[in-house]
Amino acid sequence: MSTVTPLAERPSVRKTNENWVRAKRMKALYLMMLVPMILLFIFHYVPMYGIMVAFKKFSPGLGIWNSPWNHFEHFKGLFHDFLFTRALRNTLIISILKLAISFPAPIVLAVLLNEIKNGMFKRVAQSISYLPHFMSWVILASMVGEVLSPQRGVVNYVIQLFGGQPINFLSDTHFFIPVLVLTDVWKEIGWGAIIYLAAISSINTDMYEAADVDGAGRFKKMLHITIPSLIPMIVIMFILSLGNILNAGFDQILNLYNPMVYGVADIIDTYVYRRGIEQFQLDYATAVGLFKNVVGVILIIGANTIIRRRSEHGIW
To answer: CA dihedral in degrees (67, 250, 138, 156; nearest 10)?
Structure first.
């Protein structure tokens, strides 16, 4: 003889009721989330409406809706545009160099700061290291320009002291990219190290105590405990960095470069700025910007998929 389970006792109904009770209990939290969600929608999703400009022959008099479609004309012409291909090449070179040098720099600094036992010295060193992060590139570019000035810069003073000739670092195509990479490391190394220091602070101290019992020195503990414990965080930060591979640093380059180094310093963002703002070709500039963002999304998804298949780490 079959028995009929009452509706309220069925698993699906019971689960729905539990979710509803939990939601009512957390209604204050949901209300608090409502404001940032609305702001996120207004300022990050509504402006996506402007992406349509990339697919139209935009005329300000006709507006976005009434401007005629261009049948992907801008996307077809991208790779026939010498200035775009040059900007793409420069962007990749600068981004890869920054990824190779700027990305591991905060990890090294965090590991070294963790080894400092003098608390006062550690706090002072950490504060000095992340101070440049809070300055804009307008200020930092002025400081870099003064330090590297061929007439009054301290670097050229030292070069001349040893019998060398002054170098205009910011107008020389051979020195401009190293200056970009080094100043980027100087600005962001301390701020980036904070994330890894937070990850180091969460490492179980029992592991260090067990290593002490086994006679491991500080270097071996750093090599076999600290660095392996940072790998999940390093993987996440690396995937996010790959997504920004086509963001080579608009503010930095715009404030440091000049027409003499356009050949090595003009990146996609500065190219979009000149075409969109200075030459008022908004539709073409939007197409270039959209191309860059699509490539960034593909890189994030691809890197996360590959790393997820080969390890247990990943963003999702």
So the answer is: -140
